[in-house]
Amino acid sequence: MSLNVVTLVGRVGGDPDVKYFESGTVKCRLTLAVNRTSKSSDQPDWFNLELWGKDAQIAADYIRKGRLIAVKGSLKFDRWQDRNNGANRSSPVIKVDRFELLDSKRDAESNRSPNHSEF
């Protein structure tokens, strides 16, 4: 048996990066800041998220920097060769299968106020 499930709740670190392909497919990339349960670190952990298709379009339409969201997906690694020196590189990415907006639009807008310093 194998299992690759990731569940995260956090705040979106920036507006979505959306790409539309000629085939009609939509891809959306986001970053997510997740606070640790222990208070020993005031820095969040950052995760790269990737959504495809209908979910990507919904995320592009409704998610903005600061929104509180929950995601469920799987861990994968993007792999490539460095253009400068040919070294193999990789980056962990959460391929999101499901997501949920956990705050209202008004709550998200108040999180972007100049006095807000959660991150």
Description:
- The chain has 119 residues and is mainly beta.
- It has 2 helices and 6 strands; from the N terminus they run E-E-E-E-H-E-E-H.
- It has helices spanning 53-62, 105-111, and strands spanning 6-12, 17-20, 26-34, 45-52, 68-81, 88-101.
- The radius of gyration is 16 Å and the shape is globular.
Please outline what is shown here.
Helices cover about 15% and strands about 45% of the residues. The chain is built from 2 helices and 6 strands, in the order E-E-E-E-H-E-E-H.
What is the topological layout?
Elements (H helix, E strand, L loop, with lengths): L5 E7 L4 E4 L5 E9 L10 E8 H10 L5 E14 L6 E14 L3 H7 L8
Parallel strand pairs: 4-6
Antiparallel strand pairs: 1-3, 1-5, 2-3, 3-4, 5-6
